[in-house]
Amino acid sequence: xxxxxxxxxxxxxxxxxxxxxxxxxxxxxxxxxxxxxxxxxxxxxxxxxxxxxxxxxxxxxxxxxxxxxxxxxxxxxxxxxxxxxxxxxxxxxxxxxxxxxxxxxxxxxxxxxxxxxxxxxxxxxxxxxxxxxxxxxxxxxxxxxxxxxxxxxxxxxxxxxxxxxxxxxxxxxxxxxxxxxxxxxxxxxxxxxxxxxxxxxxxxxxxxxxxxxxxxxxxxxxxxxxxxxxxxxxxxxxxxxxxxxxxxxxxxxxxxxxxx
Length: 260
Description:
9 helices; 12 strands; alpha/beta; 4-stranded antiparallel sheet; single chain; globular; Rossmann fold; 28% strand
């Protein structure tokens, strides 16, 4: 299990501050969604948590240890990361792409062993891509490619999973499959964090929500605590029909807020 603590985190790009003194905790067994408008700083927060973006102030603490003290290889074994919008440039089979997820566990020049093969097969089955194993991954549709990349992250076998916009390019059925899978990962006591745009999916599947606007953490808590009509107006500038009843949560934007 992996616990991640964000403490007074600020990130700057040149003279512009992207994130302002963020405090948040990501715990095993919970599926946490990071929400906010385009440009709010969601992906920047995730990248900072993984040591991929320099921190101006504050700290990221992994299991009580400052991120700066965690070796990159150790971090890669503990937190699997799926960035958004990945492009494949090489003619690799799907099975070989998924196998790249095992790299953090392999010594230089070593071969994939039986345990690695088992992890790869399980990851492909869970992402519903076993039938694509021998296909050229670069020639797949956007939705198929997204599931291949998710399988690669699952193949790491890490106790934490960070995914950035995992629903992009997926049809509604596979969006449901992915959200089901991420929730199942959390139920296995994994720490699961996802950057999301779909408010209904976040409300229905996430245990906790972080809502970010212009680099500031506006609210965090359960979907019912965070996704209120007033906050959606203030953060997204929308009115919405909100039903957070157990088992049928829906948030349907109905229009832009006007100042009339």
